[in-house]
Design brief:
alpha/beta, six-stranded parallel sheet, 324 residues, globular
Length: 324
């Protein structure tokens, strides 16, 4: 006999209007606003390499955790895509949830501490409708990110102008979503279709892997993703290099950078010893060391995403002679 499973039909789903949110649109930085001060010697290098990669047709990949969107930098991410300085956005499963809610109601981020006590956490009707969009997108052969982005772009979302996924759909930029089943509030809902979720996200993984085939001469930036970003990138790079090797090509000459709050002292281009707990910090050993050990170059920039994302944009605009 199979093990018993939870009966989702018994769940009480409530409208978002009853939820208290911790963030609203006031957190979003305007492009012309004074961002928090941030400087790092790697910024001019990274800005120049983004511009050079655009000229050469190399991939310009930006990987991020969902809290980057909560930092209020959506307009900066959209502008980077519009300028062609970023030509692929990769998010974890929580990313599109914040993007959807900001676009729909101009607010996001519920209090876990409050709503987990009453069993209400994550069980909000309008957010759960994303499952229908994902199911329909999977049926039509779309990735998860493209399905959600198209829905926001085509439907009457009052704040779609600040949606990163809608901008990606409008611009034809891949925005891929890499989920772990059970990680996100969407997976609580009765209308969550596990097969569709897996199909849509796996298609996104293959889209991501295809972009990585263009990483020679390109740039990969990882903002605050400690597990998803390094792990998805590692497998995609192995696939891309496998095919490149068969074709007599190499994917070695590219730049990576990690932006995070974790203090990494010393030489971040050398792997920490196994006696150091930071050995298990995947962005360091995967993105900064192992995958660029045969010809690439890496940088680590510690700082708040509300400061570092605008700083990267300013650096890239300076490199192309534009105005920040």
């Amino acid at each position: 006999m199979p093990f018993p499973t939870f009966d989702r039909s018994r769940l009480h789903i409530q409208p978002l209007a009853r939820r208290q949110n911790d963030l609203d649109l006031s957190v979003l930085l305007p492009l012309d606003a004074e961002a928090p001060a941030y400087d790092h010697p790697a910024l001019p290098v990274l800005g120049g390499r983004l511009v050079d990669a655009r000229r050469r047709g190399g991939a310009r990949i930006l990987v991020m955790g969902a809290h980057v969107l909560r930092a209020g930098v959506a307009r900066h991410l959209i502008d980077l895509m519009e300028r062609g300085l970023v030509d692929h956005i990769a998010l974890n499963g929580a990313g599109p949830i914040h993007d959807w809610e900001f676009a729909l109601i101009g607010a996001s981020t519920e209090s876990v501490a409050r709503y987990i006590q009453t069993g209400e956490f994550g069980l909000w009707e309008e957010t759960g409708r994303m499952n229908d969009v994902i199911r329909d997108g999977a049926r039509d052969g779309l990735g998860l990110g493209e399905a959600v982005g198209r829905a926001i772009l085509s439907e009457p979302f009052p704040h779609k102008n600040v949606s990163v996924l809608a901008a990606a759909a409008r611009l034809g930029v891949p925005a891929t979503v890499h989920v772990g089943v059970g990680y996100d509030i969407l997976h609580e809902h009765p209308n969550c279709d596990g097969a569709a979720l897996g199909a849509a996200s796996y298609r996104d993984f293959l889209v991501f892997a295809q972009t990585v085939t263009r990483l020679e001469g390109g740039v990969l930036l990882n903002f605050g993703s400690a597990v998803m970003g390094p792990e998805v990138y590692l497998k995609a790079l192995a696939m891309a290099r496998n095919v490149a090797r068969q074709e007599g090509r190499q994917i070695r000459d590219f730049t990576t950078a990690v932006f995070d709050l974790v203090p990494l002292d010393g030489d971040t281009r050398s792997q920490a010893p196994k006696t150091d707990p930071r050995y298990y910090y995947r962005p360091w050993k995967t993105i900064l060391v192992r995958t660029v050990a045969d010809g690439g170059e890496s940088f680590y920039l510690q700082g708040d995403h509300r400061a570092t994302v605008p700083a990267v944009r300013r650096a890239a605009l300076a490199a192309e002679g534009g105005a920040a």
